[in-house]
Amino acid sequence: MATTVRPTPSAGAGHAKRFPIYLAGEWVESDSPLAVRNPFDGEIVGITFQASREQLEQAILAARGAARIMRAMPVYERVALLQAVATGLKARRDEVARLIVREAGKPIREAEVETDRGVFTLETAAEEAKRIAGDVIPLDLLPSSKGRFGIVRRFPIGPVAGISPFNFPLNLALHKLAPALAAGNPIVLKPPSKDPLTMLLVAEILDGAGVPKGAVSVLPMDREVGDVMVGDERFKLLSFTGSPDVGWDMKRRAGAKPVVLELGGNAGVIVDEAADLDFAVKRVAFGAFAYAGQVCISVQRAFVHERVYDRFRDGLVAAAEAIKMGDPLDRTTELGPMIDDKAVGRTEAWVTQAAGEGGRVLTGGAAEGRFFRPTVIENAPPESFVCSREAFAPLVTLARVKSFGEAIRRVNDSDYGLQAGVFTDNLERSLVAFEEIESGGVIVNDVPTYRIDHMPYGGVKASGLGREGVRYAIEDMTEPRLMVVNRLESEAVTID
């Protein structure tokens, strides 16, 4: 039986803080404690709990009840709620950033950026809540429709099921929660089991801001309980960010509800002969190795024109070898640990496989505990795992190309298409890349790792379905409804 408690420090598990789960406005525990460990040193960061099937059912019932409250909430109240949460997150910026570092292994400077982006996401949602517009459309386009016009309004879709990943435990979860609240929907959020504490801390902020009871639940769950969310028809939308295999399986099991999938890929970059090479090297090094490559739009494949290939390759290798690995709380650290030992082991296996298939490891390629050295590989065959699948690791592959057209074809030779980057000073080639590259976004003179939180973000092919970015998520989380008005001639009013 669940008990209602508040988050307080505990003497258990090495005096680790206990983080009760947030169930429809109540702080509860379960019979399944979850110890969250620091990827850097293995110490327990905190103890939380995995929600039971019965607790999930309580959250769903509460969300259904809160749907009426949220639907009737006027815009100014939604705006005020989101602004209050943004203010609360800003006030606790350092605390949140340090928690991200400790439970996700993200270097402190990157964790601070994520926290600032989380504030921006909430503030943007508050602004977009003011702009959920409809249309007035003429219908008298045929004689049979004389006197008729239409009004289109967007209405909240209803309870949302959100499932967020470990790599951005704050901001990618807020990309589900913030637009849901802006649109007037309740949400049940399943944060990642590796680092759920950040969003439980945010739940404290939400609770303090006065979010209606039942409108938000933040429930860590095991896979079995989480799967119930996917097929439950009481949820009116499923929003998932994670691996392609898991995401597409969820879509098959989701039933009739709409599904939004952001599923990552093996992002490609083109380095044209007409490019600022020093800048391209700097940005590709960032894009490949930020957060140990555990980013959906991490640079994984670089196609470099043969005229500049050697200079680019040598510069990138030097940049990789200069990256400082170490304690994520050290402000000079650029690359921290991977999320767990399994991630390290499979990365090492993939690099070894690529070398056996003819690829040349120019630098890195080896694990040091839970760290994996920044790795640059050239001439790996296109069918190699490190080229054809999502590695989610601090590695990048290089390939020499003879023309810009060949580079575009090589980028498109992939099952994925989330974002791509193009470095060139040639405007015409930029426009061709925009038209021809098969991806959700083309970033000119920067890496595909670039994102700001109000832009449409999502992929094509195996990389996903739908778009995130607050305004675009709101569109998925609302339903357009048409009212047709027929002005009867018999009721016409004559104005003298």
Domain module count: 2
Main sheet strand line-up: 15-18-19-14-13-21-22
Unreliable stretches: 1-13
CATH arch. level architecture of the largest domain:
3-Layer(aba) Sandwich
Share of residues in helices: 25-40%
Terminal Cα span: 73 Å
The overall strand count is 25
Q: Work out the strand percent.
A: 15-25%
Rg to the nearest angstrom?
24 Å
**Average pLDDT value?**
95
CATH topology of the largest domain: Aldehyde Dehydrogenase, Chain A, domain 1
Give the number of helices. 16
| Anisotropy-based shape | globular
CATH class of the largest domain: Alpha Beta
Q: What class would the helix/strand composition place it in?
A: alpha/beta
Describe the biggest sheet? 7 strands, mixed
What would you give as the CATH superfamily of the largest domain? Aldehyde Dehydrogenase, Chain A, domain 1
